[in-house]
């Protein structure tokens, strides 16, 4: 039987340097500089950056989870081939009627809940696929969407007085929901209130700020006892979220950034872009808040109002994002029935008209969204009375407008957008909401998605909520399918809608 020949190994004897060579051979490679590593990962797509973050060390994961990395990633990563859509659908479980038969014991044990279904849809390219996150909340039933910043969603009460709880969560991180409380001075009862207006981040200061408007009740001389109470915004405040720690000596937690303002309403749907929070005031001007300098600049909306229609809203949409720039729609034409879409030029504060649609029913409708797909602008409008949606297309390459595209009645109702809000400016990141307010995650009480499988009651609520939001999700998937046909085949989209051959039930 042959014996195996042993491989000869070098004889490391004392004094001949053998131990030093052995240590050099087994030593780990030198650590890569953090700046070099971040520069490499910032040039990857979002999906590849997420995958690499899972295999990195704890220190490197903390670097990638910071807001500074994702700001660098946005500048250096390859741009997406097609625009993306981020939206959230909210449904609240209604109260059971009094004549309802007794419910099972399990149903009586479940309180009312608010189901929020967040979606980030992409049409392919480099931004990393679609994202869905479901949130079941039994505590903050009346909280509304108040803005997004660095991939974190802010939920806040519609109006409040004094202190108010807020909720932050990152849809890209399961179980990341955190709750914090903003403490503001109490206002006189029934004469003042607060309203959350926006959410932003200062890259130089490294702090997150929540914009709050202070409103006062306006009493008319002819006001009756049962009349509706009107409020006007009197002051714009900035509330600093500094990780739960005490503010520095030169930095106040609450600061007035616009002390003298008189507007019927400020905010609506805020938009955070390039370090600034943009707010729409009275549908006539835009307030740009710099999150670092804590300064506010007023930008008048472009275009002229038709004579004799001064009480008509000049803005025909909320602030939206098109091709990474601030966008707003205004009325145009002699009667104000046309629609003009404007983009804010970067760094100049000037408006550039993107397109103009004639006889599109701009007075009776509101622009819900617009997307520029390779030069073809897809516009989604919703009728104010019937709450039905329809589409328009405009080819900016040859200044050609297509006729109004009407859906079948059931699909048009899905496009009405009841309970749906567009999250303009959202970018998927790994920023932890807990690092913003210094609070631990809420855990299983507020989380959906992966944690739903661990809790049968939560799993049932998620399944029921997704069933109730199915129509809104199908309509947004339909818009994504239409954008996949653009910009090369706009006529095919027109023919498919007119011939009712589109896949109207995309599940």
TrEMBL record:
Signal peptide: none annotated. It comes from the Eukaryota. Residues 11-24 have a biased composition (Basic and acidic residues). Residues 1-26 are annotated as: Disordered. Residues 1-10 have a biased composition (Basic residues). This is F-box domain-containing protein. It comes from Urochloa decumbens.
């Amino acid at each position: 039987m042959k014996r195996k020949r042993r491989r000869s190994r070098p004889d490391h004897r004392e004094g001949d340097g053998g131990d030093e060579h052995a240590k050099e051979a087994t030593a780990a490679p030198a650590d890569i500089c953090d700046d070099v590593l971040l520069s490499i990962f910032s040039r990857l797509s979002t999906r590849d950056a997420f995958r690499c973050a899972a295999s990195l060390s704890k220190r490197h994961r903390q670097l990638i989870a910071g807001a500074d990395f994702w700001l660098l990633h946005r500048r250096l990563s390859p741009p997406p081939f097609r625009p993306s859509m981020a939206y959230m659908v909210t449904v609240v479980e209604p109260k059971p009627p009094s004549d309802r038969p007794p419910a099972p014991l399990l149903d009586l044990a479940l309180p009312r809940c608010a189901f929020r279904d967040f979606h980030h849809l992409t049409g392919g390219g480099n931004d990393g696929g679609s994202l869905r996150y479901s949130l079941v909340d039994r505590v903050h039933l009346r909280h509304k969407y108040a803005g997004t910043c660095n991939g974190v969603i802010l939920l806040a009460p519609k109006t409040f007085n004094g202190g108010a709880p807020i909720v932050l969560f990152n849809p890209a991180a399961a179980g990341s929901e955190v709750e914090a409380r903003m403490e503001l001075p109490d206002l006189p009862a029934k004469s003042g209130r607060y309203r959350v207006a926006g959410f932003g981040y200062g890259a130089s200061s490294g702090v997150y700020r929540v914009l709050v408007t202070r409103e006062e009740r306006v009493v008319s001389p002819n006001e009756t006892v049962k009349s509706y109470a009107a409020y006007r915004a009197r002051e714009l405040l900035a509330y600093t979220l500094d990780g739960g720690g005490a503010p520095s000596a030169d930095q106040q937690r609450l600061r007035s950034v616009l002390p003298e303002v008189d507007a019927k309403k400020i905010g609506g749907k805020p938009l955070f872009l390039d370090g600034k929070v943009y707010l729409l005031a009275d549908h006539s001007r835009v307030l740009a808040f710099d999150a670092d300098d804590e300064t506010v600049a007023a930008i008048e909306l472009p275009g002229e109002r038709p004579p004799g229609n001064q009480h008509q809203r000049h803005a025909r949409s909320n602030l939206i994002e098109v091709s990474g720039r601030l966008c707003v729609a205004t009325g145009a034409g002699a009667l104000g029935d046309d629609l003009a879409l404007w983009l804010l030029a970067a760094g100049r504060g000037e408006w550039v008209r993107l397109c103009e649609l004639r006889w599109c029913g701009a007075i009776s409708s509101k622009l819900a969204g617009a997307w520029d797909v390779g030069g073809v602008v897809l516009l989604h409008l919703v009728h104010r009375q019937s709450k039905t949606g329809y589409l328009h297309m405009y080819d900016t390459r040859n200044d050609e407008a297509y006729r109004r595209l009407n859906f079948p009645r059931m699909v048009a109702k899905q496009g009405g957008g009841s309970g749906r809000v567009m999250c303009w400016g959202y970018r998927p990141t790994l920023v932890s909401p807990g690092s913003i307010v210094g609070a631990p995650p809420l855990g299983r009480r507020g989380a959906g998605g992966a944690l739903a499988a661990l809790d049968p009651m939560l799993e049932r609520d998620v399944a029921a909520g997704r069933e109730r939001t199915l129509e809104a999700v199908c309509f947004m998937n339909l818009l994504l399918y239409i954008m996949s046909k653009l910009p090369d085949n706009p006529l095919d989209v027109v023919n498919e809608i007119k011939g009712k051959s589109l896949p109207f039930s995309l599940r």
